[in-house]
Write a structure and sequence with these properties.
- By secondary structure, the protein is mainly alpha-helical.
């Protein structure tokens, strides 16, 4: 029995990943059951077994992306909670490096990120699904907590305004890497923003 469940889960993941690749490469309008079957290399009609309607297929994709984003945020939270507390503050350079590394990890999942942006732009007729990928979602709440902890660890303001600014900047950098595909100097951009938050001189050798 457990083998059948595992096999079903694997096929469901295959369908979800194939749908994500289809959206990433060809756009949301190209998402059909037939296109996913072809992308996955499975018999025609197989995708319908896991998602009977196009809305159900969209729900599968959105839920998959949301689950992965939540896992990313929870892993970041685990890293922070495992770090020694109270020993010293993160420097601006260290904080910029941590966030830059996160951007790089997210950008490595280019298909996921491109599909997410396409869904956010084109799911106006399905607001409940759209919210799972935007600021009205569980992943955003967890991301806010992690961002607040990072700012606190560097002795910076963790006000709602600062948190949302840093999340927006990070998301913009991921977009630049995955969609525009520009080799943006991540750490220098992030450090410049963080120095602006504490009003440090551009050439400061900040240790706080």
């Amino acid at each position: 029995m457990s083998t059948r469940v595992s096999g079903g889960d694997e096929r469901r993941e295959l369908v979800a990943n194939s749908a994500i690749r289809t959206i990433s490469r060809d756009g949301l309008r190209a998402l059909t059951h037939r296109a996913v079957d072809q992308e996955a290399g499975i018999p025609q009609g197989s995708t319908s077994h896991h998602a009977r309607t196009r809305l159900a297929l969209l729900e599968l994709v959105v839920d998959t992306l949301a689950e992965r984003a939540i896992a990313d945020a929870e892993r970041a939270a685990d890293v922070l909670s495992a770090s020694p507390q109270g020993e010293r503050r993160l420097s601006i350079a260290e904080l910029a490096g941590i966030i830059a590394a996160l951007v790089e990890r997210l950008a490595e999942r280019r298909d996921d990120m491109k599909a997410r942006y396409a869904l956010i732009l084109e799911l106006d007729d399905a607001p409940l699904l759209q919210r799972k990928l935007t600021t009205q979602s569980e992943v955003h709440a967890i991301t806010r907590e992690v961002t607040s902890s990072l700012l606190t660890g560097a002795g910076l303001s963790n006000s709602d305004e600062r948190i949302e600014e840093l999340i927006s900047l990070t998301d913009s950098l991921v977009f630049t890497r995955t969609v525009i595909r520009v080799a943006t100097p991540l750490e220098s951009i992030l450090a410049a923003y963080l120095r602006g938050v504490v009003r440090l001189p551009a050439g400061s050798t900040d240790k706080s």
